[in-house]
Amino acid sequence: MTNNELAKLLIEDFGGSGNLREVINCMTRVRVKVNNPDLIDYEKIKSREGVLGLVEGEQVQVILGPGKSEKVARAMASLSDSHFSEETDKEKLQRQTQENKESYKAGQKQSGFKKFTSSIASVFVPLIPAFVGAGLIGGVASVLQNMVTAGSVSQESVATLIQVLNIMKNGLYAYLNIFIGINAARVFKANQGLGGVVGGMVYLTGMNPDMPINNIFLGTPLAAGQGGVIGVLVSVWILSKVENALHKAVPDSLDIIIVPAISLIIVGLLHMFIIMPLAGLISNGLIGFIDGVINIGGPISGFILGALFLPMVMLGLHQILTPIHVAMIESQGATYLLPILAMAGAGQVGAAIAILVKCKNNKQIQTIAKGGLPVGILGIGEPLIYALTLPMGKAFITACIGGGVAGAVIGLIGSIGATAIGPSGIALIPLIYNNRWLGYLAGLIAGYVGGFIATYFFGIDEKYVNGASLDNSNKFEFK
């Protein structure tokens, strides 16, 4: 079935072109807003070839997988003459935080902590393509430099190329806190220009290194970069509160002059003399603790982290790790936590292969597994998790065990880091630090094997082997 044919059928299932108000594309889903929900035939939608799952709610979400979702969404909008739009960053993050165990209960609201973690994550989501691109470019520069050191190529032949690649990479990493300050201001509803200025203060570019400014409380010289990402997030949040209060107090005629200056003076002093040192202590403590857990615990820590990561995702707790990953990359050149957590997806792939093999006579499950496996291997696990292993119940648990096995292998090998956040699965291989991609690949294979064995023998109910259908309708109902 072509994408246009599927779009036509889905329009009919949604009650005709006149019932479609807006069609929104996200990474793996077509999200549809309708005028009259009573006209939607949910059973027909779920039965359509190519549909991997369905989320019922204010926006009906049809899970089709990456690439296909955009093509079908555009076709639906064109054929129905309804409005087409891409999913915004805020909508993506709301979807991520909603996709957890509590969201299966109709009407349940997010806790304050989950809203907080969602806000933190939304600062970094727009930067993920930059992390990936700059990370890959930096990886190529690193490989070339290693080849020079090993004598494989001459310094003269690649010196200029290495410099050019490093300039491109540092377009992000040299000014990362400014980008974070701007994005944080957008999320916290402060002026984005002022947020960028606060982020730029971290570098202390106006300070004479021969005559450094001493901290007025500690008496020690201020250190450029101290506090980094965590300090910028805290300071920009304070900026949003200060700026909002001043907007209410200052007359409109003076607002553009007084509010920016006073805001920067107040927040700038707090940022340089209090927040940067405190955030530096917190950041260094967190990084040291995580490094200690990974290095001392080895395979045991790797198993626990790999097995528990997807439940953390389901609860929305994974988002708080994003600034920690970025802080580790800033201070060490790589995050040694991400490759272990990425193993959770390998367990899902192994589980899906086991389901595919054991449920060979179940057409619905075969369709879902075959559709989700290619993108799962590439590191996009949503179709496998939410349309296959989670609805099956036990398969989700055995898939997590597979992720734990893979994490144990990464922990046993040790010193496997990633130079950027965003990708997982085999897509993370080019971003593995110091060319230790063979160790990362060994972890992926262990996850595939572990997830397969655990799921094949313990994760599949006999009813699915005999052809019983998955009922995704309740599993995907988010309010």
Descriptive notes:
It is a single chain. With 479 residues, the chain is mainly alpha-helical. Helix 6 (128-150) runs antiparallel to helix 7. It has helices at 3-13, 42-47, 68-80, 89-98, 112-124, 128-150, 155-173, 176-188, 192-201, 228-249, 252-297, 299-314, 322-332, 338-341, 343-358, 363-377, 382-392, 394-413, 437-458, 462-465, and strands at residues 20-25, 29-34, 53-55, 60-63, 83-86. The chain starts with a helix and ends in a 14-residue tail after the last helix. The longest helix is centred in the middle third of the chain and has 46 residues, at 252-297. It has a 5-stranded mixed sheet with strand order 3-4-2-1-5, with helices on both faces.
Termini separation comes to 32 Å
Could you describe the largest sheet, including whether it forms a barrel? 5 strands, mixed
Biggest sheet strand line-up: 3-4-2-1-5
Low-confidence stretches: 92-109, 472-479
How many β-strands, per DSSP? 5
Strand percentage = under 5%
Shape: globular
Secondary-structure class: mainly alpha
N to C succession of SSEs: HEEHEEHEHHHHHHHHHHHHHHHHH
The average pLDDT is: 86
Given the structure, what is the number of helices?
Answer: 20
Helicity, as a percent range: 55-70%
Radius of gyration: 25 Å
